[in-house]
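Q&A FORM
Asked by: J.P.
Topic: structure of Concanavalin A-like lectin/glucanase

PROVIDED:
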Amino acid sequence: GAYQTSTQITEVHATINFPHVALPKGGKDEIEYGGSAWVGIDGASCQTTILQTGIDWIIKGGKPRYTAWFEWLPHYSTQFENIDVRPGDNITMKVAVDLGTNGTAGTAWITNETNGDKVVHHFDGPEVGLCETNAEWIVEDFLASGGLEPFAWFEDVTFVDAAYTHAGLQKKVDGLMGSTMIELVQDGESKSVCRIVDDNTLTCGYPDKKK
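REPLIED BY: S.T.
REPLY: Here is the structure written out as tokens.
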């Protein structure tokens, strides 16, 4: 994925094309594989807390399922109800901090632009205060009960209209140029490589294009 570093970051958003997923090459039906795409505030240079929202994909025995969620660390992620996600859908993800709360309250949104489903969660606070220094657009693995979930194969995920608002009340809006890039490596192998296409577009892909 990619992240920007700034000050007083109060909003991060992007729209992705939700990918088809499959077992990785050599994958076994009895093993569960997964991955996730999300946007968030903090979690890179500021690792004490993070406000994020996104969608997990999980596949076992050739049967995929998808879960939309929101999270404000150190609390665990919580599943959104009443949103249906399918491969090929355009999904908008956004998080925002309530101004005047010192980064202790905010909101997470996910909208399926394809079918019209929209879910929102407001964190009334006070939550652990955000540093408001990182804006993130990420494709990654996630933690399961036994550690990191084995990573599933996925079609390219493209974040479009990716931007963040910073500088507090000045509400400056910027995009991806100048971001720090993150490459996902699992068991010594690269699993997700991303590139910036333009200031508002980021594409992340599985290095081995074949399932």
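FOLLOW-UP: The two ends are 21 Å apart (CA to CA).
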